[in-house]
Specification:
289 residues, 2 domains, alpha+beta, single chain, globular, 12 strands
Amino acid sequence: MTPSWDELGKIDPKALWEARLQAHHAVQWVARAAGANSAAMPGDTQSNLGWNRDQGALVSHELRGRSQTLRVGLAITTMSLIVLRDTTAVIDRFALDGKRHADAGEWLDRILAAAGLALAGGATLAYAIPAHPVGDGAAYASGTQRGEFAVLADWFACADEVLGAIQGSLPQGAASPVRCWPHHFDIATLWTLGEGDVQTAPSVGIGMCPGDVHFAQPYFYVTPWPRPAPEKLPPLPPPGDWHTSEFVGAVLGGDAIIALPDRAVRTRQFLDAAVNVARRLVAPRPVKR
């Protein structure tokens, strides 16, 4: 799907809450398949997902089986689990509307077994996600919210576009690929500014979250690390603002974005400005670009 910033305003960002929760639960089958078939990496990197523009889907890394190499993904617009060979050829799909979480697992396990891969149903998650009835056995109900799922997918597509452009503008090798993390369901890149591991090196996270306990709508964020003291935070260009409860980050909310003229341009301008502010907060010395 082609990113369309104009489409983001078709539905109030706060009305995407239900679609986001269902998609967050569904994408865990992709994470389980990856976790069952990939060696553990720091930060659970093996389970993160990339945005596949051709399919409008969040897709796993390659899963190498005895007889086939596959990728598993979630096409958000249609709320379908998909299995791909290479990055473009969809060999099977499972529409979730009216189906239970367990039905999806059974379907996926049959395909994984045929490819000589470990079963997703046997994988456990090392984290908890927000509760929703589908997690307790209720059927998915995406058919009545086709518009919401389409707009949710567009938030991911637009985020992948602008974050990819920012990642490409940073020093080569300093920023991680743009990936979605299934525990928080955010899509982001991390610009590392110094030596050390992920907990100690100064860094700037740049991403989009489709909604969480902090904001009931999609939002873009820029997070400096280590966390600066709130009293040291300088002003940000409007309409963005600092968030300081539980995490410190420059935030631009979905409702503010859809009110902007030239949404793509203005969002990029805000993110660039926030990244520069965050970089100065955590790495005062100049960074070569």
